[in-house]
Amino acid sequence: MFALVLGDSRSLPRGTAKVSYRETYPYLMEAWWKARSEDGNVTIWPWADGSLLIQEVLERYKKFRFYFGDARLDVCLVMVGLVDCAPRPLSWGARDRLSRWPEPVKRLAIRWLHRHRPWLLSHGLFFRFTEPVPFRKTFGELVQGISKGFQRGYVINIAPAAELNYARSAGLKESIEEYNTLIAQETARFDNLALVDIWGDFMYGGVPLEAYLCDDDGMHFTAQGHWRVHELIVREEQRRSRAWKGGGPA
């Protein structure tokens, strides 16, 4: 069995929070599948990285296919969207120009932007790296490729953030909800893809959100958060494993 992991750094270990690879949801899924396979031959291929935009994830998937060919593989796990939807006080072009400033001046500007970020966002300086329309288009192309290239896929939506993040990033919660709607709509087009709703479970599952999110940034998962994501994927795997119809638009 072969499983590809696509997305951003939330599928990866986190040294600052003492979350090891063996505690991440991809490793937990690998162990779960191995325990249930006849020969224990399960390979998890991590193809995720930090701060990836949806366009970059799509490009990585195309590169994966260049090396692995077009054969239909077993499972794909994908988690994207947070980097795209998070509100920022500078546009992509402005950030690029800032990156070329002299280092001392750049440090001062970045410090000022961090200090005044809530005010700037709430007063109209509100940019997202990928706006909803291009996000839907690119994400739709990605999940279409996954549906065609894998027997089944699990699309994990954007988890909620800690309240502190909402306080310093005005509009973040609403943006996550908007992009999660797009993720759900595009995923529902394919009958061999299942949505794993960690947003709903983390928000309304009865466990304090702080148990699932790291203290250092309020975004990445604790070991308990990874375990919960793994449990939700397992739930979908068990619920739908006998109902897959072979892919293609629903």
Structure description:
By secondary structure, the chain is of the alpha/beta class. It has 2 domains: 2-87 and 130-240, SGNH hydrolase (Rossmann fold, 3-Layer(aba) Sandwich), CATH 3.40.50.1110; 89-127, no CATH class. It is 49% helix and 12% strand. It contains 10 helices and 5 strands; from the N terminus they run E-H-E-H-E-H-H-H-H-E-H-H-E-H-H. The chain has a 5-stranded parallel β-sheet, sandwiched between helices. Strand 1, helix 1 (25-36) and strand 2 form a beta-alpha-beta unit. The longest helix has 20 residues, at 103-122. The model has no long low-confidence stretch (mean pLDDT 91).
Summarize the structure.
The chain is of the alpha/beta class and 250 residues long. It folds into 2 domains: 2-87 and 130-240, Rossmann fold (3-Layer(aba) Sandwich), CATH 3.40.50.1110; 89-127, no CATH class. Helix content is 49%, strand content 12%.
Going across the biggest sheet, name each strand in turn. Answer: 2-1-3-4-5
Q: Give the total of domains.
A: 2
Form type: globular
List low-pLDDT spans: none
Q: State the helix count.
A: 10
Which radius of gyration do the C-alpha atoms yield? 19 Å
User: What proportion of the residues is helical, as a percent range?
Assistant: 40-55%
For the termini, the CA-CA separation is 25 Å
SS elements, strand count? 5
At the first level of CATH, the class of the largest domain is Alpha Beta
Q: Order of helices and strands, N to C?
A: EHEHEHHHHEHHEHH
- Beta-strand content: 5-15%
Q: Based on the structure given, which CATH architecture of the largest domain is correct?
A: 3-Layer(aba) Sandwich
For the biggest sheet, the summary is: 5 strands, parallel
Helix-and-strand structural type? alpha/beta
Can you tell me the CATH topology of the largest domain?
Rossmann fold
Nearest-integer average pLDDT: 91
- For this structure, what is the CATH homologous superfamily of the largest domain? SGNH hydrolase
